[in-house]
Please model this.
Amino acid sequence: MAVGTLATVKALDPEDLRAAGSQMILSNAYHLHLRPGDELIRQMGGLHTFMAWDRPILTDSGGFQVFSLSALRTVDEDGVEFRSHIDGSARRFTPESVMQIERNLGADVIMQFDHVIPGQSDAATARDASERSIRWLARCREAFNRIEPAFGVPQALFPIVQGGIHEDLRVEAAKAIKGMHDWQGFGIGGLSVGEAKPDMYRILDCLHAELPSDRPRYLMGVGFPEDLVEGVRRGVDLFDCVAPTRMGRNGTAFTNDGRINIKRAEYRDAGGPLDEGCTCSACTRFTRAYIRHLFVSDEMLGMRLLSLHNVHFLVALMRTARNAIGTRTFDAWSRQWLDRYHSRSQPDE
Amino acid sequence: MAVGTLATVKALDPEDLRAAGSQMILSNAYHLHLRPGDELIRQMGGLHTFMAWDRPILTDSGGFQVFSLSALRTVDEDGVEFRSHIDGSARRFTPESVMQIERNLGADVIMQFDHVIPGQSDAATARDASERSIRWLARCREAFNRIEPAFGVPQALFPIVQGGIHEDLRVEAAKAIKGMHDWQGFGIGGLSVGEAKPDMYRILDCLHAELPSDRPRYLMGVGFPEDLVEGVRRGVDLFDCVAPTRMGRNGTAFTNDGRINIKRAEYRDAGGPLDEGCTCSACTRFTRAYIRHLFVSDEMLGMRLLSLHNVHFLVALMRTARNAIGTRTFDAWSRQWLDRYHSRSQPDE
Model:
């Protein structure tokens, strides 16, 4: 999923995403509640209509902001009190209020409100947040069942497995959540929040056996191309990350030979496309030299072209991974791909 | 013509311009010579290939920069010495060097190198610059004939009529230029550079009889929707201006009921399109409320949507004007259109 936090994927048009083959966009209940307001979006016909995207949308709940805006909030059993990052006003989020917000937005998949903590947190902290998240899940489900969908369209509520980098807590959380309801999919939260990569992989490995294999597993906030391949190796189906658009706006392009920084002098007269063989509308029309010129000259089109290339790249990468799974060649393909990608990436500047 | 000074129309993709019905883009020899370099663009296959625009392109010569960058240059009979606005390096432009640059870029129409002065200049200053521009035109033509086109594709060299706001000088310049060669089109320069609107209209009126009616007349650097209609009333065929994209990036949309500033609070929950009945890809997909949200949230898509709407608006306006000329209803249509547009415009903020 490309990330459209504020009901727009930065630097891109919905038609760019469609052309790139994007199947789903992620947006965010916390941010949209603050600006422009979920009630306004409901009045405008819901998020799909508002942002002109007729394919699936998933909204995150604000749980990630409990982590990322930790200086601006206090957590208690009832919920979280935020000071708005825009105007400093107090905004209380509870499992119930978040369900109302996500009903108003009308996304196809809505995430529970959860308590996200830093990746290196100790077991006691992780247990506390994980158990609270499970209690909040029960309250989310009650509110979800009580509040009618705003547009008569069914929505799926996904639980989120927490537990930090502690395998026993993760397994315990997964079992408790599975026991509550026959969920349509599962979020794996609290990863890619400061822990080491091997810890993330270890947790994914231990959850692999615990989560139902016939339901999508969504690894939240991940990631870079190599993270996606590593995640698929460990049974993950769904990802989201700002990386393709954020790196694109900063001048970095994903290629099958690793990341390149288009601002480097070596591309001044580079006549080839960003990534040889890529079929995106940047690579089929423009040279590296042209896109470098746009970045050197601070022209917006450069940010758009790299963002759309990077989104196209990830979508194509996942398509290749799916095909490899279908032909039972995923293991060999993924090892080869990771070796080549890692060996050639340029340092960021 | 939309303005693509640095080989990109700001905030837009070539496909946006094609969809808006744009027939031609303007670019700039001075700016492209400095960055990324006309030799590089030649090496990359010329400006059309470099920026992926297969419709006509016109390049201005740097004459306007003699006016707009007047603090950074000195003029003598041979040419103009600029200090680069990017790195301060000395760059000498002469009629001959500009022809080489414009041959390297490979635009379809290339403008002579001329000496542009402020709009209120006195008759002596205006005569000096106009006569120098005519001498430079002769040198441009000699160089143009001597230097082969870079891509074997014919280019048209347009002269530029100068003479400030002094009718006798304008008529004199037009006669001298007409006497030199059977030109394929004529630029009208040195307007919209600080003079009063009535002065501009008066000069256009006096040139109307002097310029051949079977050759396009290009009013350089003009303008806003109302200026285009006033220009067509006075026989102008071709315009360029940064207004649609610059105003678009600043939050202003052209509509048939005048300009609107989309950031105003009144549009917070405005469910309609920017301009009722407009068929551009902003108006057919998004509400004023959504585009306002993008501007309030500093999201790039907002700048793109308003820019493409404004370009579409001007292209559609000129199409309507052409049709009215064809049906001999232009005079009545243009008076009505100007009355409605002027009576409803919102102040800029």
